[in-house]
Amino acid sequence: MQRYDWGSYDALPRLTGRAPGDQPEAELWFGAHEAAPSGVPAPDGDTDLAVLYEANPEALVGADAVRLFNGRFPLLLKVLAPTKSLSIQCHPSREQALDAPPGTYVDNWPKPEAFVAITPFEAFAGMRDYDEIVTLLPGLDVPELSAIVEWSSGQDEPAVALLEALLTLDLQVRNSLVRSVLGAISDRDDDPAFAAVRRVAQDFPGDIGLVVLLTMTYLTAAPGDYVFVPAGCLHAYQKGIAVEVMANSDNVIRAGLTSKAINIPELLRIVRPRSEPVRRREPVGRVRDYGSDTDYFHLYAVGSGSEPTPIPGAGPRIVLSLLDSSTISSGGTSLELASGDGAFLAPGEEVTVEGTGTLFVAATG
């Protein structure tokens, strides 16, 4: 469990059948990332998935996955429960992570990611088309913002130039600009982003990220909807509950709306303004294949049902039961998973699931 200040006090406890505690709970991790590997109960003493993987990688994930992922455990599955905006952030590609100065990233792996909404899930993801930005921002009638947009439009990469101009403003100029922009949208609802930005401003007053959000695309994913966020895609998740799958990385570069360290030069190096999220509606059927937009992972879900159904995917898989219990079985062995319980399936295991819960399945791509 990751207890960040943007998390919810009751969403994850309610989802996993626990009483709320005195700290917010933001992310529940399932995997073998070195920062927070999942615990594994064992008769001779509890251990964790990272220890088991290090002891015998091929036995755990198979020789193919060890080769394809250069010896790194391939997947990380999470449940997210934000109640206020996450930072404006971007994740690197594999090449960008390797090319970065030492100490820039916590690991040398890319972090493409995707989520499926459990409740309505709000996010800013991807940048608006620059022509739309040129229409929207000057239309706020804030002269200093219009001047920045006009200057940026003459640069080789206008969207990146605009981000750089906003993020590197002198503090006094920045504060004045944010006040003027918030005043300009205070009674406007002709763009769905305006209300969201006003809400974020309550938690981050004066942050230049409030203006940056207006250059981004605001979306709401309905329960069951899938959103893929590729490397280089600027984003800031807002609120709701979602299941998230990603390559096994915790690499984040932040540029605003956070008390954590920001790295504007690195964000400007890795951001890709035309890197856009991929959205898909919930597939029909008990076994739901959300498709794969990357070689790193493939996400499925299996809905409730009393008949044993084969768990989809091949190779190593992490499965997670939510919304009620699920029973997974292989041969003569069964394991009951309450809502919030996860299990790891080694490659080659033929496993079925039945029960009243929804089983999310993270497989390699």
From TrEMBL:
The keyword Isomerase applies. Residues 1-128 form the Phosphomannose isomerase type I catalytic domain. Pfam families: PMI_typeI_cat (PF20511). Keywords: Isomerase, Metal-binding, Zinc. It comes from the Bacteria. Its cofactor is Zn(2+). Signal peptide: none annotated. It catalyses: D-mannose 6-phosphate = D-fructose 6-phosphate. Its EC number is 5.3.1.8. GO terms for molecular function: mannose-6-phosphate isomerase activity. Belongs to the mannose-6-phosphate isomerase type 1 family. This is mannose-6-phosphate isomerase. The gene is manA.
